[in-house]
Design brief:
Layout (H helix, E strand, L loop, with lengths): L16 H25 L5 H30 L7 H6 L2 H31 L5 E2 L3 E2 L8 H36 L9
Antiparallel strand pairs: 1-2
Helix pairs in contact: 1-2, 2-4, 4-5
The chain binds protoporphyrin IX containing FE (2 copies).
Length: 187
Amino acid sequence: MSGFSVTPVTPVTRYHPLARALHGLLGLALVGNFALGLYMVDLPFSPTRLQLYSWHKWLGVLVLAFSAVRLLTRLLAPPPALPVAIEAAMPVWQRWAHHATHVGLYLLFFAVPLLGWAFSSAAGFPVVLFGLWPLPDFVPVNEPLSDVLKRLHAWAAYAMAALVLLHVVGALKHHFIDRDGLLARMR
Ligand code: HEM
Ligand code: HEM
């Protein structure tokens, strides 16, 4: 009675390979830059702090550029529809939350770095990518504005962290509790 193979009723429908690669790459970059942001703001003034600020800005600008590539990939190669069995097992609120989390994340992938960039400009520290290429300032130097942008950048980053947490908990629930194979779509 050993070893008969089971053919899945619904074949796994996966995201485009580039979408899967960007999901991993940007996931790591965003979590890393969030942690770096939290760490660097509490350091005393020193050359190390300045260096970490620069790395934080450069990595954030790279995230912004790759998020544009990601969005383009999504438009050109839309995600496959959820398998009927998985979708049917989800209550309406869960289907809505699934979709809304992704929309919220995409918005924040752009808002967080753009707010950081705008804050730098308003504070009078233009961004020079890799110390080589000065990026344009799209807001003027203005102290009250820079205070607002600083707070908005931090709040947007915390909101993104909260959504990522929700997203990962949801993904793990599908994997370990529902055992519905959803994770394979992004692997
Ligand atoms: C894209 C991913 C990014 C994430 C996840 C992120 C996240 C964060 C976080 C969590 C903080 C600490 C906030 C606090 O607790 O006060 C922070 C601070 C900061 N971020 Fe970002 N950031 C990103 C991109 C950028 C970019 C692109 C720039 C500028 C070009 C930037 C500029 C800054 C600056 C200057 C601070 C320090 C603010 C202060 O001195 O209080 N960030 N960031
Ligand atoms: C343990 C970590 C993670 C796991 C297991 C995971 C798993 C998944 C899975 C299975 C999907 C596809 C959902 C579907 O089929 O509809 C997905 C989509 C997505 N994930 Fe993650 N994820 C993780 C971390 C992250 C992180 C850290 C971020 C962002 C910083 C992120 C952002 C996204 C986004 C935006 C989508 C939607 C992609 C699209 O539809 O274009 N994920 N994730």
